[in-house]
Amino acid sequence: MVASDEEARVRRRWLGWLLVLVTIAACLATSVAAYKLAGYSWNQVVDYRSPYTSVGSAEASGVAAPLANRVVLVIVDGLRLDTSRRMHSVQALRAYGNSLVLTAPQPSLSHPNWTTILSGAPQPISGVTTNWYEGRVRVQTLLDSAIASGLPTVVVGPKSMQALYGAERAKASYLRDWKHGKYLSGELVTHAIALIRESDARFVVLHLPDIDEAGHASGGASEAYAQAASSVDNDVARLVAAFPDAKTTFVITTDHGHIDTGGHGGWEGEVVRVPAVFTGAGVQLGEGTGRLEDIAPTVATLLGIPVPRQSVGQVLPGVLDAPRSVTVAAQRERAAAVSDYVRLVLAPVDAKTRGQVVEAASQDPSAERLRAYEIRSTYERGKRVPQALIILAVALGVLLVIGLVSRRGFVAALFGVAAYYAVYGALFFGLHHDRWSLSSFNSEALLQSFFNMRMLESAIAGLIAALTAGLVYPLLRRSPKGPREGFGGRWAVLGPVTVLAIQATLAMQVAWFVWQYGANVTWTLPDFRWGFKYDLDLIQTTALAAAAVLGAVVTYLVGRYHPRVLRATAERVQGEQADVANSTS
């Protein structure tokens, strides 16, 4: 009988340690899967190939006679709306022109939104999703349209404009590498003035980088940022003063703003609500709102050239001082492009629905494009239900198995899960003041370190979760037994079990994103707020592998030294000694 009891204890001991190995293996497998999925999903956005670059008429007709002899489009990179209202030259232009607040599309990064300004095509249509985009953009731009129309064109700005837009085709250009720490806008404005005069340019694109540089270096609410804006303000005033003729129109705008601490790319108001000022020939006094993609068709109408083919923007209402007939052709071309877009979006949907939406798009392009997106999104979500349900079922299955194996262990693990989210949230939202936003890291160079820090903090929060579970578990038992009594495996498994429960709850959140937007990107881009959270969920799941291994050590040590366990063990020893004394007496 004694031998049988001893054999049972040995079996239980080995079973406990076997469960430790199995649970750690499950955590590691989940981490590897999350790592692969995170890389795949990230690359899907970076390498996104827009299916809409062929929309629009190949032979656009143009609009009418030009409203301005010359249009100077100035992209003041990284300029916040509130800062623009403290710039004297920009305020003076507002007083004599049309002031607008535009919404920039996401991701609110430089190359994507330069492309939006010049083409009227936001990121899902242009395919330019990051600053790592390589090669010429695949949508038509104002540069393409102006050059094809024979307008003398000047481009002044960074060398990346050559790679993205073929700026060397302009009649004259001055392109420079960005040099951190050196003020370039004065030099660029000086060359722009000279080239405009030499070439008698009709269309000018001038990019000024210094405010953005200051935003990245010091933040959008810093004194350095304000000083950079003041310097650029003086150079804009010099540019405007060089061309006082009544036939020149100036358009001052930006690609994005900056959060107070520096950074952009996300959805924050100070990042996506951007200024635009139109002043000069063909512009009427006023103010209003619009979208960044509305700049291209408005500038094209001022110049009397075809609207870029893939533009889904509209001529900004109330901006142009011209009869309504002047904008009719531009709006017709926009409606044609949007109808093509709608047709492609709804390609998988039934023909009747597709036909109804395409027909309506010619009457109200903006509303019907959004309607088409919703119809296709609903259709795609229906197809993704099985994928999401599989992930959800596996996650719930893991939690169910934990509960069936040990009810008290499951409750302790839930306390650990709560501790994990409390610690991780306190670090992410409280200590770092981060958000689910690409603005959280101040430049692309900091991306890897940002994610590495999130992984480190996930592992730390996972260990605290294991510690919490270990501290709670003895409180759920009347007389808990510790590792010294042969229960080392059961204590050690509590750490990785808690981590596995955390991974299961993260998997539920991943399942929601997969249902909403999908892991692969084929016809549009996801909402980047939720996309960023999705990436962070996968990164947390990956990093928790370390917590699973070390968590086993943490809970084992808790089992050895927890006061309640020590007290219960001492009571049992005393009881056994008393039994022995009684039996011998």
Give the helices and strands, then pairings.
Layout: H1 2-46, E1 70-76, H2 81-84, H3 88-95, E2 97-103, H4 110-119, H5 123-126, H6 142-148, E3 153-158, H7 160-165, E4 172-176, H8 185-199, E5 203-208, H9 210-218, H10 223-242, E6 248-253, H11 269-272, E7 273-280, E8 286-291, H12 295-303, H13 325-345, H14 351-361, H15 365-405, H16 407-431, H17 447-472, H18 488-516, H19 528-561, H20 563-584
Parallel strand pairs: 1-5, 1-6, 2-8, 3-4, 3-5
Antiparallel strand pairs: 2-7, 6-7
Helix pairs in contact: 1-18, 1-19, 8-10, 9-10, 13-14, 13-15, 14-15, 15-16, 15-18, 16-17, 16-18, 17-18, 17-19, 18-19
Q: What order do the SSEs take from the amino end to the carboxyl end, as H and E?
A: HEHHEHHHEHEHEHHEHEEHHHHHHHHH
SS-based class = alpha/beta
Q: Tell me the count of domains.
A: 2
Give me the oligomer status: single chain
Q: What would you note in describing this structure?
A:
The protein has 585 residues and is an alpha/beta fold. The protein has two domains: 2-47 and 406-573, no CATH class; 71-345, Alkaline Phosphatase, subunit A (3-Layer(aba) Sandwich), CATH 3.40.720. Helices cover 60% and strands 9% of the residues. It contains 20 helices and eight strands. The protein has an eight-stranded mixed beta sheet with strand order 4-3-5-1-6-7-2-8, with helices on both faces. Helix 1 packs antiparallel against helix 19, helix 9 packs antiparallel against helix 10 and helix 13 (325-345) packs antiparallel against helix 14. The longest helix has 45 residues, at 2-46. The chain is elongated, with a radius of gyration of 31 Å. The model has no long low-confidence stretch (mean pLDDT 92).
